[in-house]
Design brief:
InterPro entries: Homeodomain-like_sf, HTH-type_TetR-like_transc_reg, HTH_TetR, Tet_transcr_reg_TetR-rel_C_sf
Structural class: mainly alpha
Keywords: DNA-binding
Protein name: HTH tetR-type domain-containing protein
Radius of gyration: 19 Å
Organism: Pseudonocardia halophobica
GO molecular function, one term: DNA-binding transcription factor activity
Length: 199
C-alpha cells in the first residue's frame, strides 16, 4: 500500500474512534490517548494527521456534516421538481440520518458548546445550510426575508431534533417529519409576507 494511502487509512481509523468517543461519552472523554486506543494506533500516528485533539474534533464534525449533505442531496434529487416533495425529503433524510446513528446527533447538535473551534465551525456550517435553504426557497438570489426564514428554520429544526432525540418530544419519526415539513412550508409561505413593510 502506498504511504499516502496508509496515512489516509490511519486518519480514517482515528476519525472513527473520535466519532465513537465524542458521540457516546462526550468532549471531555475525547482525548488523544482515548482516540489512539480506540483506533489501536500509536500516539505518533495521531500527530501525523492532527495537530491536537481540537483539530480531530472539528474534523469529526466536518465528516458528519459532509455525510449529512450527501444523504440530503441524494434524497432531494430523488424528490424531483416538486417543492413540497423536496422539503419533505430534506426533513425526512435529516431525521433518518441522526436517528439511525445517535452519535451523529450528539456531534452535530450537542457536544462542544464550550469548545471555541467547534462552535465556530458549527456556526459556519449552520450559516452555509441556511444559505442553501434560502436559495431553495427563493429559486434565485435570496432576499433578506428568505434569509430570515432560513436562519429561523435551520436553528429551530436543530433544536427540534435535539429534543426529539433526547426523548423530550415523544413522537415517532413519521409524526416528526410530518410536523416539521408543515412548519417548513408554512414559514416558507410567510417569507412573502415579510417582504411587505409592517403597518
Amino acid at each position: 500500500m502506498p504511504a499516502a494511502d496508509r496515512v489516509a487509512e490511519r486518519r480514517s481509523l482515528l476519525l472513527d474512534a473520535g466519532l465513537e468517543l465524542l458521540g457516546t461519552q462526550g468532549l471531555a472523554a475525547t482525548t488523544v490517548r482515548g482516540v489512539c486506543a480506540g483506533a489501536r494506533l500509536n500516539a505518533r500516528y495521531f500527530y501525523e494527521s492532527f495537530d491536537d485533539i481540537g483539530a480531530l474534533v472539528v474534523a469529526v464534525f466536518d465528516r458528519v456534516v459532509a455525510e449529512l449533505h450527501t444523504t440530503v442531496d441524494a434524497a432531494v434529487a430523488a424528490g424531483g421538481d416538486d417543492p413540497v416533495a423536496r422539503v419533505r425529503a430534506t426533513v425526512a433524510s435529516t431525521a433518518e440520518f441522526v436517528d439511525s446513528d445517535r452519535r451523529r446527533a450528539r456531534v452535530l447538535y450537542v457536544e462542544g458548546r464550550g469548545h471555541e473551534r467547534l462552535q465556530r465551525r458549527r456556526r459556519e456550517s449552520s450559516s452555509d445550510i441556511a444559505g442553501l435553504v434560502a436559495l431553495e426557497a427563493a429559486g434565485k438570489e435570496p432576499r433578506s426575508e428568505h434569509r430570515i426564514v432560513a436562519a429561523f428554520l435551520v436553528g429551530g429544526f436543530s433544536e427540534l431534533l435535539t429534543r426529539w432525540i433526547d426523548g423530550e418530544i415523544p413522537v415517532d419519526r413519521d409524526q416528526l417529519v410530518h410536523a416539521a415539513t408543515e412548519l417548513f412550508l408554512a414559514l416558507g409561505r410567510a417569507a412573502g409576507r415579510l417582504a411587505t413593510p409592517a403597518g
